[in-house]
Amino acid sequence: MSFKHISVADTQALLGNDDIVVADIRDENTFAQGHIPGAEHLSNANLAHFMQEKEFDQPIVVVCYHGISSQGAANYLVEQGFEDVYSMDGGFTQWASELPNEIEK
After folding, report:
1. N or C: fewer beta carbons within 10 Å in the chain?
2. What is the pLDDT of residues 18-34, one digit of tens each?
3. d(CA 98, CA 75)
4. Total-model pTM
């Protein structure tokens, strides 16, 4: 089992689902400057807590800057037993480019 790739448009469509978790792995300062609405900041510091509070079958979309680092993080979550994990292609840079009005600060 492995993670799946997801587009910005498909991620936006999933945001209406209450179960969806958007895990943003960019650094804390960058996350604070703007992120996908409802996203949670995920770092090594809060990873254990994050994994304890999420259900293994919850959809999790991992977001980074450009969609590269998120693939490794998504793969790690799958290895930990999470079943519905996505890496958002293009990362937050792509989100900001396509949906500049859909950024939470």
Report:
1. C
2. 899 999 999 999 999 99
3. 26
4. 0.97
